[in-house]
Design brief:
It contains nine helices and seven strands. By secondary structure, it is of the alpha/beta class. The protein has a seven-stranded parallel β-sheet, sandwiched between helices.
């Protein structure tokens, strides 16, 4: 299928893991993909093919003006943005009584502040800078945020991550409320436990791995492609009437 032929999809944190899988999935469906990451995207670009363009940027240090410039540069090069996937994220673990302000600020900046201002920049281009007027009458701008199971739960030893992922769920709903009548769909995907490099220590710990698997009704970890599939759905015309939703892709974890 080429559901996204002629579309431009921007994916942050695209150098590996979930972000890399999302970027490749959009490219395979015909989209021009712009990957944003602070590390090399060579492996993803090689797999995604000729419709992949990489931007090197550190969302942990970027300010709103820098994010606005990234959006302006993408629009100048490719003419538009149809999909933004705010995937980039980080986690810092420590007991709450010892949690440092530096760790708190770093996590919030990457997981919440940068996604909001990147969405703002894309929304501003669409609403105030002529993006919507140049689009076809039935085209919609799609913004997809990557939330988490900890958008709903508290977690342990990850207060900043939990706060940021609760926040991204709230921002998703707030932007949907403001922008739904502007032909903008703002939704989020909340992954469960996914086989990525970040979760390797958990998967290699037989006690923790079994405890996690024992709670997942499907009895298996998610693959990055499972998260990519949810993003493709939310970016497609099949999700035209889906707005402000947090789509759990967790094998039934939250239903347990």
């Amino acid at each position: 299928m080429n559901r996204f032929e002629g579309k431009v999809a921007v994916v942050t944190g695209a150098s590996r893991g979930i972000g890399g899988s999302i970027a490749i999935a959009f490219a395979r469906e015909g989209a021009q993909v712009v990957g944003i990451a602070r590390s090399s995207q060579a492996d993803i670009r090689a797999e995604a093919g000729s419709k992949y363009f990489d931007v090197t940027a550190d969302l942990g240090t970027a300010d709103p003006a820098g994010l606005q410039k990234i959006v302006a540069d993408v629009v100048a090069k490719f003419g538009k943005i149809d999909v933004l996937v705010n995937n980039a994220g980080t986690i810092r673990r420590a007991p709450a009584v010892d949690y440092s302000q530096q760790d708190w600020d770093d996590v919030m900046r990457i997981n919440l502040t940068s996604p909001f201002f990147l969405a703002q920049a894309v929304g501003r281009w669409w609403i105030k800078e002529g993006g919507r007027e140049k689009a076809a009458a039935d085209d919609r701008l799609r913004i997809i945020n990557i939330a988490s199971l900890l958008s709903f739960q508290g977690g342990i030893l990850v207060p900043a991550y939990t706060a940021s992922k609760h926040g991204i769920a709230g921002v998703t709903k707030a932007l949907a409320n403001e922008w739904a009548n502007q032909r903008i769909n703002v939704n989020a995907v909340a992954p469960g436990y996914v086989e990525t490099e970040n979760t390797r220590p958990l998967r290699e710990d037989p006690v923790r791995s079994q405890a996690i698997l024992g709670r997942i009704p499907q009895g298996a970890w998610a693959k990055p492609a499972d998260i990519a599939g949810a993003c493709l759905y939310l970016a497609s015309r099949d999700a035209d009437y889906v707005n402000g939703a947090i789509l759990n892709v967790d094998g039934g974890w939250l239903a347990r």
